[in-house]
Structures are given as structure tokens and as C-alpha cells.
Design goal:
Helices cover about 30% and strands about 20% of the residues. The chain is an alpha+beta fold and about 110 residues long. It folds into 2 domains: about 5-50, no CATH class; about 60-105, no CATH class.
Length: about 110
């Protein structure tokens, strides 16, 4: 699969902005899972999220930790949320034994 075909199949959100500060003549914006693309004055400008975000120190610890939350709509049963969380865990390869029942700050000894 060529890069153009891969780019078209990748999840994204495209829109035409009403205005953009900092870049001239932005005609299109594309949000992708790992980057923001802006068509500015006929050229694509890429902003990679990994290059602009910083993880809190100690970085090694934060790379080891993952967190996701599952919410349900007010008219959904709690069991639906549990099933969704279990499905996400399976897809991400997270075993039940890897879960913690406290906040990360408590694990680091900073909780009260």
C-alpha cells in the first residue's frame, strides 16, 4: 500500500477553519492520531504531537503507566461500561492482574 493510500485509510478529522493564527492562508486542517496537518499557503505543515508534548518527570515511570477511562451514557447499564472496558483491555493487551485500584499519585507515595 502506497503512502497516499495509507494516508487516506488512516483515521482523521478534516475541516476548513474559519481562521488560524500563526500561519498564512490555511485552507484545510487534518487531525490524525499522532499529528496535526495544516495546508498553509499551498504547502502542508505537519505538527507531530510527540514533538510538542512533554511527559511529567520521571519520564521512565510515565512510559510504563497507561490509563484509560470508560464512561457510559446515563441511559446505559453499568454492565455495558464494564463490557466495553474489558473489550478495550483485551485489544490493548492489558491483563486483569496489571490493574491498580488507586490513583497513580498514591502509588508514588504522594497521596494523602
Amino acid at each position: 500500500m502506497g503512502q497516499e493510500a495509507a494516508s487516506k485509510s488512516e483515521r482523521s478529522l478534516r475541516f476548513v477553519p474559519s481562521r488560524v493564527e500563526g500561519l498564512p492562508d490555511v485552507a484545510e486542517v487534518v487531525f490524525r492520531p499522532d499529528r496535526l496537518e495544516l495546508l498553509s499557503a499551498g504547502r502542508w505543515v505537519l505538527v507531530r504531537f510527540a514533538e510538542i508534548a512533554r511527559r511529567p518527570r520521571p519520564a521512565r515511570l510515565w512510559r510504563l503507566l497507561a490509563r484509560f477511562e470508560v464512561g457510559v451514557h446515563h441511559d446505559q447499564a453499568e454492565g455495558e461500561g464494564v463490557a466495553l472496558a474489558q473489550d478495550m483491555m483485551a485489544r490493548l493487551g492489558i491483563a486483569e492482574g496489571q490493574l491498580v485500584d488507586v490513583a497513580y499519585i498514591d502509588l508514588m507515595g504522594g497521596g494523602t
